[in-house]
C-alpha cells in the first residue's frame, strides 16, 4: 500500500464485461487501494473490460495491467472516453446513461433525469401521453416497426377494466444485445417506460418476459422492480423468465408462455391489443420501444422526431457484431448507411479479410453483400432491398463464410425452434434443410436427381415424376420459400426465407449455380 | 419424502400468481434437476390441469428436462455471430466428451466478443481452442 490516494475506478458489471473478466480486473483495482464503482457498459465491446478513471479510458484490461494503469505507464489508454470516435459519432437517447451510472442506484438514476418522463406523463394524462408518443413517430423496435402510439391508443380505447403492459425481453435473435444492455445497464429506464405505458392505457400490471439465457439481466431487473415499486405504484411490474424457446419472442407465443401454456403462436385477429394476456387488452412492446419512451416524454415528441430518416423517426440502438473489429452498441438516428456502420464504425472484419456478407436483423434477416452498403438504415429502405432491419443487429462475415451452409443453418434453426402450430413452418423448414443438403451435395457436379420413392407413389398426383436438374432444385427451394413466407402464421416461418433467398440471390456460386440465379421478385 | 414437501412448497409459493406453471417448473427444474412424471401428476392436480397439458408444456421448452443430467453442462453458443467468429472450428476440434455435456445454445447476447459459452450462470467470452479446452477440463 502506498500513501497516495488512489482514484475512483469505474468498471462495467454488464454480462459482457463479466464474460471478458471484469470482476478480476475490478478486484485487482480494489486490491491496489482504489474505490471501484460498478457501472453500465459504454458499449465499446472490443475494449472490455474497460476502466474509466476520471473520464479517461483504459482497455481491454487484464488484472496484470492494473499496476501500469495506476502508475501512468499503461499503453492501453484510449484517452477521454466521451471523445472516442465510436462514442462521439453517436446520438445516444436510449443509451444516454451508458457507462455513466450504477445500474441499480436510484440516486444515480434520478440525478440523470430519471422519472422526469413519468412525472410528465402523470401530469399530461392518458390522452396527451399517447399523443406525445404518436407524434414522436416511435415505431416498435422489436422488428415489426408498428407505430407505438397507435398500439397504445387501441389498448386505451379497448373495453375492459383489466389491462396489461407486457415487455418483450425475449431477445433471442443472434447478433442482438441492446435489450440485455438496457436491462443490465439502465433497468429503471425500462421500468419507467412500462409505467408511462400504464398511465397511457390504464393498466394496473406489467410483465417483463426475459429469456432464461440472460441470468444477469433477470437478476438486475428483479432487483430494480423491487426498488422502484413505491415510485410506480399503484402500477406493479413483475419479472417472468422464459424457458429457452426462441419462438416466445413472437408476441402471441410470449403471451401463451406467460399464461403458463406451450409457447405456440396464436392466429391474429384477435389482436393482443384487444384480446391479449388472459384475454384482456394488452400492450406488447419490445424493450427498446419502452426504453425510448421516458426520453420522449421528458424531452418532447418533437426532439425525438427531429432525428431520423423518412418514416423511421428517432434513434436506433444498432448492435454491431460477428466478425468485426470494433463491435458494440452504436445508437444513432435512422438513415446512416450500412457501409458506414460496417466499415467506418465497425472497422471491417476482425480477421482482416474482406467482408463477404452482413446479416441484418437477426437469424431471420437477409444477408447483404457489400454491394448493398449504400442502403440507408431505415425500415422502408431495407424492405425495398428484400431485407429487414429487425431488432437492428448486424452480423458481419468475412470471405470464408459458406453462404449455402448459412442458408441451411437458417432452415435448421427454424426447424428446431418452430412451435409446430402451422404447417409451412413446421414441415417446410425440415424439407428446406433436406433440399439445401441435396443442393450442397451436388455442387460442382451435373448430376440430376430422379424422383424419390415418395414422389413416385401413385397417390402423389402433383409430384413431379421426372428427374430434376440442379437449377430445378433451386427453383424448388425458391418455391418452398414463397410458401413459407406467405403461408406461415408468424415471423419465424415467414421470415426464415429472408436469409435463405438472400444467400441464394447474392451468392449463387455457393449453391453450385454457374450463372446467377434469376430473382423472381425483381 | 423430502421431495414431496419441497414440491408442495414450490407449488404453494407460486399458486396465487397469474399463470403459475412456468415459475413452478423453473423452480422444480432447479431443485430436482428434472421434471418427473410423478411431479407432473402433482402439479397438474394442484393447478387443476390435465397431465397432458403439463406434459405438453414441459416438453415444449428446452429448459425443462424429463430426466436428470448427471454430467456437468457447458453451453456453447453456435448462432450466426459466434459462427462468424469461428465457433464451428472450435466445436469440430473439441474431443468427444463423455464426462461433460456440451450443449448447443443459440445466443448469449455477447455477439461482439464470441465465441461464447456459459457454465451455470458464469459466462465466458473470446474463446479459442485453448480456453475452451481448459473450461471443459475444469468441469470433467
Characterise the protein shown here.
The complex is a heterodimer of chains A (522) and B (140). The model of chain A has no long low-confidence stretch (mean pLDDT 95). Chain A starts with 7 loop residues before the first strand and ends in a 16-residue tail after the last helix. In chain A, strand 7 (205-210), helix 11 and strand 8 form a beta-alpha-beta unit. With 522 residues, chain A is an alpha/beta fold. Chain A is globular and about 85 Å long. Chain A has four domains: 8-88, Glutaredoxin; 106-305, 3-Layer(aba) Sandwich (Rossmann fold), CATH 3.40.50; 317-398, Ubiquitin-like (UB roll), CATH 3.10.20; 403-511, de novo design (two linked rop proteins) (Up-down Bundle). Chain A has helices at 15-19, 22-31, 66-71, 85-88, 106-111, 116-124, 126-136, 148-157, 178-185, 187-201, 215-232, 251-258, 287-299, 301-305, 338-345, 379-384, 403-417, 423-441, 453-456, 470-487, 491-495, 497-506, and strands at residues 8-12, 35-39, 51-53, 56-58, 77-80, 164-169, 205-210, 236-241, 282-286, 308-309, 312-313, 315-322, 328-333, 355-360, 367-368, 393-398. Chain A has a five-stranded mixed beta sheet, covered by helices on one side. Chain A has a five-stranded mixed beta sheet with strand order 13-12-16-14-15. The model of chain B has no long low-confidence stretch (mean pLDDT 95). Chain B is an alpha+beta fold and 140 residues long. Chain B contains seven helices and four strands. Chain B has a four-stranded mixed beta sheet with strand order 2-1-3-4, covered by helices on one side. Chain B folds into two domains: 2-60, no CATH class; 73-139, Glutaredoxin, CATH 3.40.30.10.
Amino acid at each position: 500500500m502506498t500513501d497516495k490516494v488512489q482514484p475512483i475506478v469505474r468498471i462495467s458489471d454488464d454480462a459482457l464485461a463479466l464474460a471478458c473478466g471484469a470482476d478480476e480486473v475490478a478486484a485487482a483495482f480494489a486490491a491496489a487501494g482504489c474505490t471501484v464503482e460498478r457501472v453500465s457498459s459504454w458499449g465499446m465491446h472490443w475494449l472490455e473490460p474497460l476502466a474509466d478513471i476520471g473520464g479517461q479510458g483504459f482497455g481491454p484490461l487484464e488484472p496484470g495491467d492494473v499496476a501500469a494503469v495506476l502508475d501512468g505507464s499503461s499503453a492501453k489508454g484510449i484517452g477521454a472516453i466521451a471523445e472516442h470516435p465510436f462514442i462521439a459519432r453517436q446520438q445516444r437517447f436510449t443509451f444516454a446513461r451508458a457507462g455513466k451510472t450504477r445500474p441499480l442506484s436510484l440516486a444515480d438514476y434520478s440525478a440523470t433525469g430519471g422519472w422526469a418522463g413519468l412525472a410528465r406523463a402523470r401530469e399530461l394524462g392518458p390522452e396527451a401521453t399517447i399523443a406525445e408518443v404518436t407524434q414522436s413517430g416511435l415505431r416498435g423496435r422489436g422488428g415489426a416497426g408498428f407505430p407505438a402510439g397507435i398500439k397504445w391508443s387501441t389498448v386505451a380505447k379497448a373495453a375492459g377494466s383489466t389491462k396489461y403492459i407486457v415487455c418483450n425481453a425475449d431477445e433471442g435473435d443472434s447478433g442482438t444485445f441492446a435489450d440485455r444492455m438496457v436491462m443490465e445497464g439502465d433497468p429503471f429506464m425500462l421500468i419507467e417506460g412500462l409505467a408511462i405505458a400504464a398511465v397511457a392505457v390504464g393498466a394496473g400490471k406489467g410483465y417483463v418476459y426475459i429469456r432464461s439465457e440472460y441470468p444477469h439481466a433477470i437478476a438486475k431487473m428483479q432487483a430494480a422492480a423491487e426498488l422502484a415499486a413505491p415510485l410506480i405504484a399503484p402500477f406493479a411490474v413483475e419479472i417472468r423468465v422464459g424457458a429457452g424457446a426462441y419462438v416466445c419472442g413472437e408476441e402471441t407465443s410470449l403471451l401463451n408462455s406467460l399464461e403458463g401454456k406451450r409457447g405456440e403462436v396464436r392466429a391474429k385477429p384477435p389482436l393482443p391489443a384487444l384480446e391479449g394476456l388472459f384475454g384482456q387488452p394488452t400492450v406488447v412492446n419490445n424493450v427498446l420501444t419502452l426504453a425510448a419512451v421516458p426520453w420522449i416524454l421528458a424531452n418532447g415528441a418533437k426532439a425525438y422526431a427531429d432525428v431520423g430518416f423518412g418514416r423511421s423517426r428517432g434513434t436506433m440502438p444498432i448492435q454491431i457484431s460477428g466478425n468485426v473489429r470494433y463491435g458494440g452498441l452504436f445508437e444513432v438516428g435512422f438513415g446512416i448507411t450500412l457501409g458506414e456502420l460496417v466499415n467506418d464504425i465497425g472497422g471491417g472484419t476482425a480477421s482482416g479479410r474482406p467482408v463477404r456478407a452482413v446479416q441484418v436483423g437477426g437469424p431471420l434477416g437477409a444477408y447483404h453483400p457489400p454491394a448493398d452498403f449504400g442502403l440507408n438504415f431505415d425500415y422502408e429502405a431495407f424492405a425495398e432491398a428484400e431485407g429487414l432491419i429487425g431488432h437492428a443487429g448486424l452480423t458481419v462475415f468475412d470471405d470464408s463464410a459458406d453462404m449455402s451452409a448459412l442458408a441451411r443453418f437458417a432452415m435448421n434453426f427454424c426447424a428446431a425452434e418452430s412451435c409446430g402450430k402451422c404447417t409451412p413452418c413446421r414441415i417446410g423448414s425440415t424439407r428446406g434443410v433436406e433440399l439445401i443438403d441435396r443442393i450442397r451435395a451436388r455442387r460442382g457436379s451435373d448430376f440430376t436427381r430422379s424422383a424419390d420413392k415418395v414422389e413416385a407413389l401413385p397417390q402423389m398426383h402433383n409430384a413431379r415424376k421426372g428427374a430434376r436438374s440442379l437449377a430445378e432444385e433451386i427453383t424448388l427451394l425458391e418455391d418452398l420459400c414463397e410458401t413459407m413466407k406467405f403461408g406461415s402464421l408468424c415471423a419465424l416461418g415467414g421470415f426464415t426465407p429472408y436469409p435463405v433467398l438472400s444467400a441464394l440471390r447474392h451468392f449463387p456460386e455457393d449453391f453450385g449455380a454457374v450463372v446467377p440465379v434469376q430473382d423472381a421478385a425483381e | 419424502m423430502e421431495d414431496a414437501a419441497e414440491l408442495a412448497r414450490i407449488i404453494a409459493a407460486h399458486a396465487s400468481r397469474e399463470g403459475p406453471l412456468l415459475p413452478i417448473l423453473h423452480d422444480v427444474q432447479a431443485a430436482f434437476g428434472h421434471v418427473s412424471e410423478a411431479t407432473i401428476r402433482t402439479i397438474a392436480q394442484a393447478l387443476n390441469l390435465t397431465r397432458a397439458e403439463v406434459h405438453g408444456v414441459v416438453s415444449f421448452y428446452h429448459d425443462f428436462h424429463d430426466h436428470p443430467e448427471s454430467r456437468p453442462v457447458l453451453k456453447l453458443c453456435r448462432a450466426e455471430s459466434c459462427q462468424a467468429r469461428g465457433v464451428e472450428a472450435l466445436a469440430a476440434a473439441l474431443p468427444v466428451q463423455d464426462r461433460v455435456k456440451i450443449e448447443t445454445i443459440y445466443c448469449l447476447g455477447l455477439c461482439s466478443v464470441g465465441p461464447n459459452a456459459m457454465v451455470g450462470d458464469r459466462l465466458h467470452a473470446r474463446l479459442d481452442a485453448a480456453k475452451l479446452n481448459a473450461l471443459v477440463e475444469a468441469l470433467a
